[in-house]
UniProtKB/TrEMBL annotation:
EC number: 2.9.1.1
Listed name of the protein: L-seryl-tRNA(Sec) selenium transferase
GO function term, MF aspect, one: L-seryl-tRNA(Sec) selenium transferase activity
Family listed: Belongs to the SelA family.
Species per Swiss-Prot/TrEMBL record: Piscibacillus halophilus
Length: 465
């Protein structure tokens, strides 16, 4: 083995190779970075030789092996770790794929603000320092009917901030049936514990009565918290306390009320026969003190947590130390501002991708699918078989889990590839096309494929031989 180890060329010799020089010029790389990668690959090669996992016959063979691995390592490092994908799963708010897509107007605002200096914390009227908390507050107030609002970096942060600010060292009463677990194994009860609040569970998993809350109130009670169970749906022998009744009870005992809404619906989907999700405005009108929701779910904006409600409580949150810890950046504010403005001023059905995709009818999608298959059949030497398919879509993102949207798409079959192989092949394309498998068939749901993405999908399918 020691003889083989001696075949490893020195670092300075490897640095002079044409392969690396071309790579350095192509990506404008600096020498210390390249040298570090070569050293890593050389060390690994030495270990593999000594452990008898590798062996070589010549110096040239070792050199080519190290250079090849160095090139692959650098190209992998240089590639984007977050990249666009085509979502053909039919899940509109796919958490793994980034949830809500921004509107074109919001994207342009992000680009504009990122390119220039901005009035993030500057009052152009007075020339004095401004507050980022003021940037979108009026829009949130107009949209929800709240007295005031503050934005933090996600809705879990909203929950943590509200509990830390108003219930640290105190007791928070929550229905046992509302102690949900959200994405990534984060539990509401765990967030409450981290905030310093003491959880006081009442009721049972399926039934909680108003007297359960009333009997739990004591001198340590600081808050009654309601958690909207947006990521699961319970049916059968169930009972929940009405929000207005909870607010009335809390006022009688001078206790704060807070609802973690999660999904943040500002448009009434029930008018289209979709679910029974409460509107943020309705929750505010119920008299609840504070409500929080996500920005990248039904609002169709960037990832933020919005806390809206009574001005006296929002003002306390703005002064809290966590307001700085959990604040969002200028590009997020730009995207959120434009999204909120579109809900208020513009025909949102056409401009907010999330709402547009949810409201697409099966008939509209069927027209697109037929046209897509016809276009595919015009190509010669294609290897796939595409057929129309009636499908069912999900909204996703822990939103309206009980709702299935009537959808339409295509099945893709191949004599050469199994369904899993075909799904993997599509996933590894550039851009990746993310599909799903049902009944051993690869499915593409056109609900989440934009019309301007159809040409890309068509081209990639034609390339498969």
């Amino acid at each position: 083995m020691s003889n083989v180890v001696r075949l490893i060329p020195p670092i300075h010799e490897l640095l002079q190779s044409k392969t690396l020089k071309h790579l350095v010029d192509e990506h404008n790389l600096n020498e210390p970075f390249v040298k570090r990668v070569i050293q890593q690959q050389t060390d690994q090669t030495r270990k593999d030789i000594l452990s008898k996992e590798l062996t070589f016959e010549s110096r040239e063979e070792v050199r080519d092996y190290i250079l090849s691995n160095t090139k692959d390592s650098i190209e992998s490092y240089m590639s984007n770790q977050i990249e666009p994908v085509i979502n053909a799963t039919g899940t509109v708010l796919h958490t793994n794929l980034g949830r809500a897509r921004l509107s074109e107007a919001a994207i342009q605002r992000v680009v504009e603000v990122a390119r220039h200096y901005s009035t993030l914390e500057y009052n152009k009227q007075t020339g004095d320092r401004g507050s980022r908390h003021d940037l979108v507050e009026q829009y949130i107030k107009d949209l929800t009917g709240a007295e005031a609002a503050i934005v933090v970096n996600n809705n879990a942060a909203s929950v943590y901030m509200v509990l830390s600010a108003f219930s640290k060292g105190g007791e928070v009463i929550v229905s046992r049936g509302e102690l949900v677990e959200i994405g990534g194994s984060f539990r509401v009860s765990s967030i409450m514990e981290e905030s310093g609040a003491t959880l006081k569970e009442v009721g049972t998993t399926n039934k909680t009565h108003l007297y359960d809350y009333e009997q739990a109130i004591n001198e340590h009670t600081s808050m009654m918290m309601k958690v909207h169970t947006s990521n699961f749906h319970m049916i059968g022998f169930t009972k929940q306390v009405e929000r207005t009744d909870l607010v009335k009870l809390a006022r009688e005992h001078d206790v704060l009320t807070y609802e973690d809404l999660g999904s943040g619906m500002v448009y009434d989907l029930t008018e289209h026969g979709i679910g029974q999700e409460p509107l943020v405005r309705d929750i505010i009108e119920s008299g609840i003190d504070l409500v929080s929701f996500s920005g990248d779910k039904l609002l169709g904006g960037p990832q933020v947590g919005v806390i809206a409600g009574k001005k006296e409580y929002i003002n306390q949150l703005k002064k809290h130390q966590l307001a700085r810890v959990l604040r969002v950046d200028k590009m997020t504010y730009a995207a959120l501002e434009e999204t909120l403005k579109q809900w208020i001023f513009i025909n949102q059905n056409k401009n907010i991708p999330t709402l547009r995709d949810i409201l697409l009818t099966r008939e509209e999608l069927k027209i697109r699918v037929k046209r897509f298959i016809e276009r595919y059949l015009t190509y010669d030497d294609t290897s796939l078989v595409l057929n129309e398919k009636i499908l069912s879509s999900k909204i996703g993102g822990g939103t309206l889990p009980e709702i299935n949207l009537d959808s339409y798409g295509v099945t893709i079959n191949s004599e050469q590839y199994t369904s899993k192989e075909l799904k993997d092949l599509l996933r590894k394309m550039n851009p990746p096309i993310i599909t799903r498998i049902e009944d051993e068939q690869v499915l593409m749901d056109f609900r989440t494929i934009s019309e301007n993405e159809e040409d890309i999908v068509l081209k990639k399918l034609v390339e498969i031989k």
